[in-house]
Amino acid sequence: MMNSQIKDIFLRNNFLSEIFIEKLLEFECSAQDRLPNYDVRENITGPLVDALFEEGQEMQRVLSDGTIFNFLYRSKIARDFVMSSMGTPDHVWEPQTTKLALELTKEAKIGLVGGAYAGDHVVLISKQLKKNGGRCFAFEPNNDQRGMLAKNAASNGLDNIHIDSRGLWSNENSKLKLEGYDSFAFPTVADEKDEDAFETTTIDGFLFANGIDRLDFLMLDIEGAELEALKGANSFLTKHRPNIIFEVHRSFVDWSNGLENTEIVSYLTSCGYKVFAVRDYNSNVDMREMPIEIIPVADVYLDGPPHGFNMLAIKDESIVMNDKFKICRGVSPKLLRHKNPSLHKPLIWNE
Fold first, then answer.
1. Which of 39, 213, 250, 345 sits most deeply, having the most CB atoms within 10 A of its CB?
2. Domain ranges in the chain?
3. What pLDDT does 350 receive?
4. CATH code for 95-350?
5. Pairing of strands 57-62, 110-114
């Protein structure tokens, strides 16, 4: 798309890249208003920004609270972080999920994250846990991203992050491997001799083995393995009541009979949880000072092509009964720039 000479100029001049991206964002805002149902970011501006950088190029950006975040340019997470409309973003990825995780951990001591990636959520969670004298256990089998997570922990002086290369599962006797590329990779059962295979552990087994008798917060983004991981946490779910953020995706979860009737939601309900969908952008979007919109599990709008979103499971509903949250009904958790605003934009923007 971009010849090598022009690309080299941009690679050697960050100021030019910043100006180019700024102008693309201006174009994006104007064009999106005139092109309903057409994703300008995915089809026009995003590919142009992709052309500026080398695949896998290591980059760094500093958040508004001083957090240093190192990352590889090889995913939508990286691209949308680079394309943030905020001069100094307050998050890396998924603004409302980030805000929710920090709200749920403001008094927590022990957190555990499956699918830690490079630390887009883990680093901020761990900073908060450290203030409380707490620890975060981060599981990431992707070697490259686990390396970036370790670098981010070191860059921010976070000696309270315990990084583990194993996969979370319902037993400790399985071998898994990742299928697919980078942030889209999902775990499948592997042959014992597969050189790409990694070992599994359970949340219960890991915590018991390390002498940990509490779990305050659990976050799972492991591309379809969430239910297996939750089954492996049964003891802590039933006895210790951790607040949970987890992802569901239509490619892995059959919600044709309603989200409330899926196996994963039924399992959490049986453990005493109330479950909500979280309305959020899979992007970097300025949502500072906005309430976190959540949808009761039986009231989620689910139509559309296969898609995924984050969910919240809590046992104490008083957590969401304040002005930091807004309970919605009949709308999609998938916030999108280019779709029906009454379904796919924050309700507060439509008021």
1. 345
2. 4-82, 95-350
3. 61
4. 3.40.50.150
5. unpaired
